[in-house]
Amino acid sequence: MRAYDIIMKKRDGQENTKEEIKFMVEGYVKGEIPDYQVSAWLMAIFYNHMTAEERYELTMNMLKSGDTVDLSSIKGKKIDKHSTGGVGDKTTMALAPMVASLGLKVSKLSGRGLGHTGGTIDKLESIPGFKTSISPEEFVKNANEIGVVVAGQTANIAPADKKLYALRDATATVDEVSLISASIMSKKLAVMSDGIVLDVKTGSGAFMKTVEDSEKLAKAMVEIAKLNNRNAVAMVTNMNQPLGDNVGNALEVLEAIETVKGNGPKDFTELCYELAGNMLEVSGIMTYDEAKKKLEENIKDGTVANLMKKWIKAQGGDSNVVDNPEEVLTISKDIVDFKAKKDGYIYTIDTEKVGIASMVLGAGRAKKEDEIDNSVGIKILKKLGAKVSKGDIIAKLYVSKISNVESSLSLLKEAYEIKNEKPDSYNSKLIYSIVK
């Protein structure tokens, strides 16, 4: 078997066999196939795409290149949730205790933020004392006893994906549905959960900019899961504006806490309910409608907030943060207002630029080695369709000594478009579709 022939087949629009895909992935990981040949193969895939079976084989070969995470010692149903990333997406922090209160075991490995999207691990570490590096024994113990554990990725999961992604990034072959879906699912399927609920973001702050492309990605990932005999549902959700009101680590923790106490922003609360309903339905524990009804009761009577306290305490954090978040969290007191330059309606928001505006304040990383400041970020006061007058405050910037305030304000000016007409409500719809 030769890489040359495999590349030529895909270049000519033919399907690669299971053996050919294995040959390419294993050969590249072992250093037996050079970068330039794998780059050519990736470009051929970019233009000619892959069938559902090819995508599955690519996924499984990337998965088999590293470790898997066995969750069998955790009793009960374990449903994983994955978001493709967005601005203000603090869902895991609120959703984990929500679904745990309904009987699911949340045992999740999360990552750090890079670029305009935030990372769950960075956000959790803004809670004083919270540990995201825990032993496998602690991981299992917390999942069994409390029902929630969220830790950083320490296992050697899908190293082939890391290597292939670096090459895709250097050869302009990142944004192709087969390659994206295989990349995500190789890591998701490596964690041996009972099912997966995928939150596929779409719009100006998402990787996929159109609903059509996002639905293609959602369908591809659900197909891969089903071929692996894993239950899966994908929701295509809005990222044409930040999710919730807060962007930035401690600010997002504050918002997640308020949400589990029943005081969260409408859009973020609704998304958590929808995700929870689908996670419970996928698990088979209860129906979607039963889950949403029971969750409402658990939030109202404080069950979810109390579970959040136990989870935070178990991972070394100050559980008093749930009752007194503004006292425990370090949030900058130095605030700069971003104001409307004219009268009209918020017509569009370039959400990616809002994310970058938060990053340059110090809330995120441009490079992996960058330090972040958990105290900074942006509070959004006006969202799509809001009527504003000249001088109205659209957003508040929480800044520190390391913040590039001028760049942040400049990015927000570019991000917000104000017009005399109202925007199409379709652009602010929360959930576009559900793929099962």
Automatic annotation (TrEMBL):
Pfam families in the record: Glycos_trans_3N (PF02885), Glycos_transf_3 (PF00591), PYNP_C (PF07831)
Coiled coil: none
One annotated GO molecular function: 1,4-alpha-oligoglucan phosphorylase activity
GO CC, any one term: cytosol
SUPFAM superfamilies, per the entry: Nucleoside phosphorylase/phosphoribosyltransferase catalytic domain, Nucleoside phosphorylase/phosphoribosyltransferase N-terminal domain, Pyrimidine nucleoside phosphorylase C-terminal domain
Domain of life: Bacteria
One GO process term, biological-process aspect: pyrimidine nucleoside metabolic process
Domain Pyrimidine nucleoside phosphorylase C-terminal residues, every copy: 345-419
Chain segments annotated as transmembrane: none
PANTHER family reported in the protein's UniProt record: THYMIDINE PHOSPHORYLASE
Family that this chain belongs to: Belongs to the thymidine/pyrimidine-nucleoside phosphorylase family.
Assembly: Homodimer.
Name assigned to this protein: Pyrimidine-nucleoside phosphorylase
Native species: Tepiditoga spiralis
